[in-house]
């Protein structure tokens, strides 16, 4: 046996060891990749006495995408006889402030928000507060007004509350255009039907009150980079609107707005915020969504009285934050929860 063969023999166990380790490593990586690809969560190691998080932030899609409403193809709009109206309507929804904001080039009747800030991508996103049911479900009787509301009245509701502004006349060019756009978006939806993924996600109720103090921590971790520590967002340099809209303060939605209700805020945020989250890839846990809603909605914002709202107080939603109520629960509980007991009492 010469010198080289001899040393090779002595290295043999080492080489075999390395080989086996390499094979094991490749196996583990392939396994992890498979789990990831198949969307399966690899089993978590659990320390004795430490419960696995029930409310994992990396939870799955909020709804099965199969059968989800989709907006009609935008490139087909030119085949409509009122294509110009529809296009102007979409433009107004996407860039409301430029036309109708504090420096609006058509009129100055709103606070600088765009409809699209809350009705994402001009109202086309599943569970992004889309307009899929606008054509099919209006006019309808709503508890807030106690009357039948047509789509114009509903749009003006958002102007007066979410945009803390003034109404548009039904026969104005702008109102006609927005209605035309919504009718086009919902053209394939049968009368009376609410398509899958319409509106806002219903976040499961917590068995405790939503907590503004926990919410503040979540805000500072997940929201400040865009909406800023003072909640005032970031204005575009030309002043025509926001890059990141304000969440509270004088330029935000007022206390009569839908988002001032905890369930609307939590549901909108759960499926859409931080920006980039979707119903298929939500980022916040349910608890985080409720708590951040409690934080944002406990800070100052414009107040406005709508004395004709809720002529029948028993029609108020469980999370309507202002009394009087037809039940025994406090205003505090109607605002922050826990809501389960209120809901049960209401169903009796
Ligand atoms: C600050 C957020 C916000 C802004 C900005 C906003 N909205 Fe809304 N809008 C809401 C919320 C919340 C609802 C209620 C959704 C629900 O309860 O499911 C709503 C509901 C609606 C509805 C009824 C949809 C349905 O299917 O019942 C219409 C129509 C509407 N908004 C139009 C507009 C228009 C037009 C603008 C711009 C002028 C606008 N909104 C701006 C938050 C906003
Ligand atoms: C990466 C930037 C970013 C982060 C982080 C982010 N947002 Fe937003 N947010 C936006 C943008 C942009 C819009 C407007 C969307 C549009 O116009 O398309 C928006 C809109 C909103 C709106 C509706 C408009 C308004 O002004 O009322 C709410 C409510 C909101 N965000 C809440 C949150 C909350 C709560 C968090 C943290 C959990 C959060 N956002 C994190 C970028 C962000």
UniProtKB/TrEMBL annotation:
It comes from the Bacteria. GO terms for molecular function: electron transfer activity; heme binding; metal ion binding. The keyword Membrane applies. The chain crosses the membrane at residues 12-35. The keyword Iron applies. Residues 210-300 form the Cytochrome c domain. InterPro entries: Cyt_c-like_dom (IPR009056), Cyt_c-like_dom_sf (IPR036909), Cytochrome_c-type_DH (IPR051459). Gene3D superfamilies: Cytochrome c-like domain. Keywords: Heme, Iron, Membrane, Metal-binding, Transmembrane, Transmembrane helix. This is Cytochrome c.
């Amino acid at each position: 046996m010469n010198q080289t063969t001899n040393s090779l023999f002595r290295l043999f166990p080492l080489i075999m060891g390395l080989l086996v380790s390499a094979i094991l490593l490749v196996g583990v990586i392939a396994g992890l990749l498979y789990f990831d690809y198949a969307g399966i969560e690899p089993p978590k190691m659990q320390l004795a006495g430490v419960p696995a998080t029930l409310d994992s932030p990396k939870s799955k899609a909020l709804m099965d995408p199969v059968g989800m409403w989709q907006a009609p193809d935008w490139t087909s709009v030119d085949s409509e006889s009122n294509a110009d109206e529809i296009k102007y309507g979409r433009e107004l929804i996407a860039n409301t402030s430029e036309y109708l904001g504090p420096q609006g080039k058509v009129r100055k009747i709103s606070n600088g928000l765009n409809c699209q800030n809350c009705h994402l991508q001009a109202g086309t996103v599943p569970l992004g507060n889309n307009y899929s049911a606008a054509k099919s479900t209006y006019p309808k009787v709503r508890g807030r007004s106690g009357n039948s509301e047509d789509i114009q009245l509903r749009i003006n509701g958002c102007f007066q509350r979410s945009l803390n502004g003034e109404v548009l006349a039904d026969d104005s060019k702008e109102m006609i255009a927005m209605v035309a756009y919504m009718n086009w978006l919902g053209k394939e939806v049968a009368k009376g039907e609410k398509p899958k993924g319409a509106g806002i996600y219903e976040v499961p109720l917590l068995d405790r009150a939503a907590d503004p103090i926990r919410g503040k921590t979540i805000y500072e971790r997940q929201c400040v980079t865009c909406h800023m520590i003072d909640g005032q967002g970031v204005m575009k340099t030309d002043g025509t609107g926001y890059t990141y809209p304000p969440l509270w303060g004088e330029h935000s939605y007022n206390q009569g707005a839908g988002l001032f209700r905890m369930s609307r805020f939590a549901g909108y945020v759960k499926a859409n915020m931080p920006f980039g989250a979707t119903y298929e890839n939500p980022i916040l846990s349910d608890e985080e969504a409720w708590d951040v809603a409690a934080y944002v909605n406990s800070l100052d914002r414009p107040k406005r009285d709508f004395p004709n709202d809720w002529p029948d107080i028993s029609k108020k939603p469980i999370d309507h934050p202002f009394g009087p109520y037809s039940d025994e629960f406090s205003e505090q509980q109607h605002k922050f929860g826990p809501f389960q007991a209120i809901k049960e009492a209401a169903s009796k």
